[in-house]
Amino acid sequence: METPIANNRLLLIINPISGVGAKEAIEPLVRELMTPTGYTVDVAYTCARGDATRLACKAAANGYKAVVAAGGDGTVNETAKALCGTGIRFGIIPCGSGNGLARHLGIPMDLRKATKLMAKNHVIDIDYGSVNGMPFFCTFGIGFDAAVSGHFAKQHRRGRLSYIKSAISEYINFHPQVYTLSANGKVLTEKAFLIAVCNASQYGNNAYIAPHASITDGQLDITIIHAGNPIDT
What is the mean pLDDT of residues 36-51? Predict the structure, then answer.
């Protein structure tokens, strides 16, 4: 058993509509596995976009030791951005459609296994990027992937099938654009299908866009994909 933590409050933030599975088992599971490690578990559910950020900010202001996000990459991003620079420990229970950051970190997709891993209390510091003052922790896209994400966000149904439908729908009318990038002292102008700026290695569902990316090396990996024929794309 882990040594009890001096400041032992943990806030579990659950997004009840993330992914496709039921979320009823998450709260008792976290209480079962985290309480023996010395944590007192409080639980909050999101109801709308921005709730996870608000709840995490409140936890930081109230002196919580740890915050855990149970949801997908959207919930993870909303929660984590409120904790940057606070020193508060952040845990992920992946139950979204893609779970890109969790997969990159090697967190199991099985809820019990993920919570057991979290209970081992292994903490690392990771990098993050920023777009227009907004932090991101996994990937940031311009072009086709951004269009697909925007379409997916408007769908009522979640899951991999909805992603595929969004991709097909956007591809029909999508046109590559010309972009100018400034990085490492160089300026590059390219007509691209998409540009992915990656802190982590994948979008989610093990779809790797930057296989060699690291979240601890202090660098972002930029992947440029040019327009090809429909089969290549």
Answer: 96
